[in-house]
Amino acid sequence: MSNRDETTAQMKTRMNIWVLGAMLVLVVAVIINLFRVSILQNKKYQDMANKSHFGSITIPANRGSIYDSNGKILAQSATVYKIYIDPALFRKELSGYIEKETERQAEAAKNGGSYTPVDYAAKKQELVQFLAQKLDIEEQTILDAMEKNTQYYVLKTQVEKPVADEILEYVNNVVVGQQVDESGEIKNRTVSFASITTESDTKRYYPQNSMAAAVIGFTNRDGDGLYGLEAMYDDYLQGTDGKTISAKDVNGNEMPYRYSKTYAAQDGNSLYLTIDTTLQTYLESNLTEMVSKFQVANRACGIIMNAKTGALLAMATCPGFDLNEPYAIADPTVQAYLDSLPEEEYKAAYVDAREKQWKNKAITELYQPGSVFKVITASAGFEESVVKLSDTFTCTGGVVVADGVPPIHCHKRSGHGTQDFTTALTNSCNPAFMEIGRRLGANHFFQYFSAFGLTEKTGIDLPGEATSYYKPLEEMGPVELAACSFGQTNIVTPIEMITAYAAVINGGYLMKPYVVSKIVDTDGNVVMTSEPEIRRQVISEETSSTMRKALEDVVNNNGGSNAYIKGYRIGGKSGTSQKIGGSTSATDEDDMQYVASYVCFAPADDPEIILLIMADEPNKTISYYGSTVAVPYARKVLEKTLPYLGYYPEYTEEEQAKLDVKVPFLEDESLETAKAKLDSLGLKYEVVGEGENVYAQTPITGMQVPKGGTVILYSEPIETENPVTVPNVVGMKLSQANALLAASGLNYVTAGASADRSDVTIVSQSLEAGTSVPKWSVMEIEFAVNDHQTG
């Protein structure tokens, strides 16, 4: 072989190697790409293929409902509609109608006639105006939507059925002219736009409006839970949307129904709460009255809880807001303030006000419990045997707890003198509880503070629970220990305070509070239940029994309090705390703000119900003491709550003798019979007229009057009544009020603290002073102990 042939062979070999190499690289690249497409990016390309070959329509799931403990609906979802447009189809339909008009005009000209085509530009504008008006959106928004390069564009969500039906009726029967039918009758000629239609959706409704608003929370426009239970249990409530998937042909058009498949929506589960709407109403109505009367600046809250289980029977923040209109500021005072702001300040202030009204004050905000906290200090003292009921405490009005530190004063600067434990608790004597704290020492005090759950969240099934702020053990010197012992310095949430207090009186068990009783699916199957959960036992039953008795004595005539209700055994403790960063020595009264609170329970010997009411910054010029701001409304709540829950009064002999009398029906009775009935009830009477039978009476049947009260018997028609003027008895002792009311011709009944005590005065009257009322009308007067607590 010649050299030339050998060179040619080598060149061919090299060429083959390069070609084979290139082919090998290409094959490897193809294999790698196939692996990437078929394995690594399989889902991506599968989705792309599905989008090309399949179309889908979402079938929204109904969100689960929320019910109270008796099955009353608090939140539910109902069907509403999305109004949407297929812009491409709309343009195609409009173009088709215009083309037909052109054909009609040409046909008429061909036959020697004339035809005025429909002005579809004007019809389009009429359609736009109609949709804008019905959907409350801008016309330009609709015009822009009609030009979108898409087959699906939502014009409006959450449209109610009547509006959706009206829109469908309009777009399916757009009048474009008139025509004569075969019978010669003139009828409207219409066209339809299938490109504008509806799609079912769901909307959240709250039938009770503002009831338990801060507890329930609400949803956003997409149906996701915001705030409250709606947020906490969103995964249970929201359900799973369904879909209808249909095949498309090569041109992207949907194929007949037999090529589609529907996956039904799975509706959300429903919540059944421990909250009772009747008790919720009692609580909210009294909080509203308290906030109004005492002009509470920083809102108020209340909790009714089962002391044995931790189940919440009611929880409220006042003022609240309408769950159906959560973005509207519900408090007119706040809205008036916002309206007064310059435009550049309004938005930020509005957002702050809106966020504040959504917060559940009972779990998200901290407060200084003041004298209510003394039950914790006392319980720890009894459990550690550093205090006994028979111990005495001498109060001179102030205590020096450390060298070089000014004395920490009692609210009664002149001092309470020598008193036993129960009297000290009744008097809410700060020095007595500073002494108990000293005996405990910082280690034991902090040990119980922590054991009662006041250094941690309660774990309640509501979002946004705040953590308490407290002096840690390493920072607790003599001054800090003294202040903490009577309820200043440390700040806690109301839910922490009531759960700790419940442990004091329920046998010593710290319970985990909860709101949701059970979760049920659409078939009625119970998905989840809540059972009472004991976190730990903090004190013994013996200590708990001692505290129950002492707190009942605070309420009873022995100790006195205006939470007293005849026939019921109630225990409780009020508190009034300063809001100056835990300081106990502030001197500028103008800068001081206060929190008034009260926690009470019933029945005192075997507590079932525990109630907390707290007013944050009541108007100081009216009153800021716990006993006068919070306690009367706690009593009013219990007066309705206890009978509702099946607890009925059991009167002592002393109470029985003082019971008010219900005025009997006396009309049409003879005067002699009427007098005899009133005599038997211990009531007095006056007769007006010369007749022999009772024509009318004052007070009317069913009114409560005290024994010894007076009833007017009218024996003939009344021509002119002689009204009496209501005097002002607020601030008086009973003996003073009794004489004045009798002289004025008025009956009265009492509420609150025992009127027999020397240290009570009237704090309110049901009839406004200066008004005219019929003689011997009944006025309720409310008493309160002369309580001036700042601890």
Terminal residue distance: 119 Å
Give the % helix: 25-40%
Coarse structural class = alpha+beta
Number of strands: 35
The number of helical elements comes to: 24
Main beta-sheet annotation: 7 strands, mixed
Shape: flat
The share of residues in extended strands comes to 15-25%
Overall pLDDT level: 86
Commentary on this structure:
This protein has 791 residues and is α+β, with helices and mostly antiparallel strands. The protein has 24 helices and 35 strands. A hairpin with a 5-residue loop joins strand 8 (218-219) and strand 9. The longest helix is centred in the first third of the chain and has 38 residues, at 3-40. The radius of gyration is 39 Å and the shape is flat. 39% of the residues are buried.
Offer a quick outline of the entry.
This protein is an alpha+beta fold.
List keywords for this structure.
five-stranded antiparallel β-sheet; 791 residues; disordered C terminus; seven-stranded mixed β-sheet; alpha+beta
Draw up the topology in text:
Blueprint: H1 3-40, H2 42-53, E1 54-59, E2 66-67, E3 73-85, H3 87-110, H4 120-135, H5 139-146, E4 153-159, H6 161-171, E5 174-180, E6 186-191, E7 196-205, H7 213-216, E8 218-219, E9 225-226, H8 228-232, H9 234-237, E10 242-247, E11 260-263, E12 270-273, H10 277-293, E13 300-306, E14 312-318, H11 332-339, H12 343-358, H13 361-364, H14 374-383, E15 392-395, E16 398-399, E17 408-409, E18 417-420, H15 421-427, H16 430-451, H17 478-485, H18 494-505, E19 509-511, E20 516-520, E21 526-529, E22 534-537, H19 541-555, E23 571-578, E24 594-602, E25 609-616, H20 626-629, H21 631-644, H22 653-657, E26 661-662, H23 671-680, E27 684-688, E28 696-698, E29 704-705, E30 710-714, E31 724-725, H24 734-744, E32 747-752, E33 760-765, E34 772-773, E35 778-785
Parallel strand pairs: 2-12, 27-30, 32-35
Antiparallel strand pairs: 1-10, 2-3, 3-4, 3-7, 5-6, 8-9, 10-11, 12-20, 13-14, 13-25, 15-18, 16-17, 19-22, 20-21, 23-24, 24-25, 26-29, 28-30, 31-34, 33-35
